[in-house]
């Protein structure tokens, strides 16, 4: 990255999760001096030894490189890290509460800590996905708890990175959104991203926060829309993949996020959708479309299970191979993964499940501890003597499977393709019974 002619800042990133850690490494690579903090001391100790807390392609290399260059440090002392920084990114967790609202306790704590350590002007930037008007609350909190009149600014700079492609997305964003209240804050944010050549959208803080809500909700809506179409395709004997391809060629619609299947999971879409529905209601709007998006998404899992049951008749005593557990490929993240509900239903109905995932195996072991599941070390060990093979995550590894070998190993040649990864006809020709979604 060429950053020689750009102003450099001393940045503190609070929170070493997916957003915080990736951002910290990328800002260091852009030439800034970054300290990444987390209150999980074990995580910080591991990071100092270049042990990543989650799997993300390219991240460990980027962290190693910048630790070596001394542009990236890890610390468990938030006070100290704030004191020596002029820019603070808040990237702590905002987990969902039972009513769908986001738990903002960690953000409030960080705001108070910043207030306590306000030794010079600081730009405080929220990067976590937060309900609209959180920026305002951060500002009020710092003003209330600071012991002096030192100036500060609050800004919103939502993150759009995808897990599994986080490093690439950080260096190649479609746009950078900055929600600011002062020219100074705008200038600093532009300097932070100066080496990246992309559109910068400058807005007020509330608008920037809504852009994040609206982006994730729109993408989730696109997925649920094509999933609803897939249901009609199944009923009408049509093919959703051809429909999606034709739809996507219309530039107003676009090709991406039209992949029908068992629906979206992960820590962003389900949580952010709930939070947007909740906050909209709170400020006076009933966001009916989004409730429907969630309903369609939930139904896709049940629909998939029903399709499998239709072929196997009785699940009790059946052995089902599950390939793919993570909520999507290139991550070990199992949070809100559709695989969890699907496997739990199979288990409840008395089936045995043999699980395999290239990365999420350890996460899954904790999740299914004590349940009637077995873990296999590879695809072929997983399918051996099974009555059905389900694909729940579209890992590249699965695209290279030797299906003739799989056919010999299975007890019953039934494939349920929850991600529409394969050409059904080709598998039928090999002697499989094939279940796809909307095709
Ligand atoms: C998402 C947004 O893409 C990102 O901009 C935001 O910052 C965080 O949330 P992420 O959750 O990492 O990123 O994954 P993404 O690649 O968007 O996929 C989300 C889910 O949708 C996955 O479960 C995926 O399998 C599913 N999906 C995606 C579909 O079912 N069909 C599609 O066509 C696309």
Account of the 3D structure:
The chain is of the alpha/beta class. The protein has 2 domains: about 190 residues, Rossmann fold; about 220 residues, 3-Layer(aba) Sandwich (Rossmann fold), CATH 3.40.50.720. Helices cover about 45% and strands about 15% of the residues. The chain contains 18 helices and 14 strands. The strands form 3 sheets. The protein has a 6-stranded parallel β-sheet, with helices on both faces. A 6-stranded parallel β-sheet has the order 11-10-9-12-13-14. A two-stranded parallel ribbon has the order 7-8. The radius of gyration is 24 Å and the shape is elongated. The mean pLDDT is about 95. The structure holds uridine-5'-diphosphate-xylopyranose (UDX). The site of uridine-5'-diphosphate-xylopyranose has 20 residues, from helix 9.
Nutshell version of this structure?
The chain is of the alpha/beta class.
Order of strands side by side in the largest beta sheet? 3-2-1-4-5-6
Biggest sheet layout? 6 strands, parallel
Q: Which cofactors or ions or other ligands sit in this model? A: uridine-5'-diphosphate-xylopyranose
- The low-confidence runs, each spanning 5 or more residues with pLDDT under 50, are none
Task: Quickly list its features.
binds uridine-5'-diphosphate-xylopyranose; 14% strand; Rossmann fold; 2 domains; 14 strands; six-stranded parallel beta sheet; alpha/beta
Please write out the topology.
Elements: E1 10-14, H1 18-29, E2 33-37, H2 41-48, H3 59-68, E3 72-75, H4 78-83, E4 87-90, H5 105-116, E5 122-126, H6 134-145, E6 152-156, H7 166-171, E7 175-179, H8 183-192, E8 199-203, H9 205-236, H10 240-248, H11 269-282, H12 288-312, E9 319-323, H13 338-348, E10 352-356, H14 361-367, E11 373-375, H15 379-383, E12 388-391, H16 396-399, H17 403-409, E13 414-417, H18 424-429, E14 433-435
Parallel strand pairs: 1-2, 1-4, 2-3, 4-5, 5-6, 7-8, 9-10, 9-12, 10-11, 12-13, 13-14
Helix pairs in contact: 1-3, 5-6, 9-11, 9-12, 11-12, 12-13
Bound molecules: uridine-5'-diphosphate-xylopyranose (UDX).
């Amino acid at each position: 990255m060429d950053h020689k002619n750009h102003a450099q800042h001393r940045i503190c990133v609070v929170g070493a999760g997916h957003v915080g850690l990736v951002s910290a490494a990328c800002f260091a690579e852009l030439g800034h001096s970054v300290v990444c903090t987390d209150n999980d001391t074990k995580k910080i100790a591991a990071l100092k030894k270049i042990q990543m807390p989650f799997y993300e392609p390219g991240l460990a290399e980027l962290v190693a490189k910048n630790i070596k260059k001394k542009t990236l440090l890890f610390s468990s002392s938030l006070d100290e890290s704030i004191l020596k920084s002029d820019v603070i990114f808040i990237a702590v967790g905002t987990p969902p509460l039972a009513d769908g609202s986001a738990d903002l306790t960690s953000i409030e704590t960080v705001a108070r800590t910043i207030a306590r350590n306000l030794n010079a002007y600081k730009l405080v930037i929220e990067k976590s996905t937060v309900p609209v008007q959180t920026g305002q609350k951060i500002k009020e909190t710092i003003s209330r708890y600071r012991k002096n009149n030192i100036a500060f600014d609050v800004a919103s700079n939502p993150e759009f990175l995808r897990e599994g492609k986080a490093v690439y997305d950080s260096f190649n964003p479609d746009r950078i959104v900055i929600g600011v209240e002062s020219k100074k804050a705008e200038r600093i944010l532009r300097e932070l991203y100066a080496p990246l050549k992309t559109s910068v959208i400058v807005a007020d803080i509330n608008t920037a926060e809504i852009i994040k809500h609206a982006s994730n909700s729109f993408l989730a809506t696109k997925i649920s829309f094509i999933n609803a179409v897939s249901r009609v395709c199944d009923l009408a004997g049509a093919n959703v993949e051809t429909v999606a391809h034709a739809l996507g060629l219309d530039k107003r619609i676009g090709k991406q996020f039209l992949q029908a299947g068992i629906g979206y999971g992960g820590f962003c879409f389900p949580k952010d959708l709930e939070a947007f529905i909740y906050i909209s209601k709170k400020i006076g709007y009933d966001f009916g479309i989004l409730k429907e998006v969630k309903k369609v998404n939930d139904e896709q899992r049940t629909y998939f299970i029903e399709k499998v049951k239709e072929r196997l008749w009785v699940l009790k005593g059946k052995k089902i191979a599950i390939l793919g557990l993570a909520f999507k490929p290139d991550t070990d993240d199992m949070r809100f993964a559709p695989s969890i509900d699907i496997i739990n239903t199979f288990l409840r109905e008395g089936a045995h499940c043999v699980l395999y995932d290239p990365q999420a195996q350890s996460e899954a072991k904790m999740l299914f501890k004590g349940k009637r599941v077995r873990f296999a070390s590879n695809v072929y060990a997983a399918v051996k003597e099974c009555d059905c093979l389900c694909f729940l995550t579209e890992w590249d590894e699965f695209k290279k499977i030797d299906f003739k070998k799989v056919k010999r190993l299975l007890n019953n040649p039934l494939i349920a393709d929850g991600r529409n990864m394969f050409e059904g006809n080709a598998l039928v020709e090999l002697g499989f019974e094939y279940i796809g979604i909307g095709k």
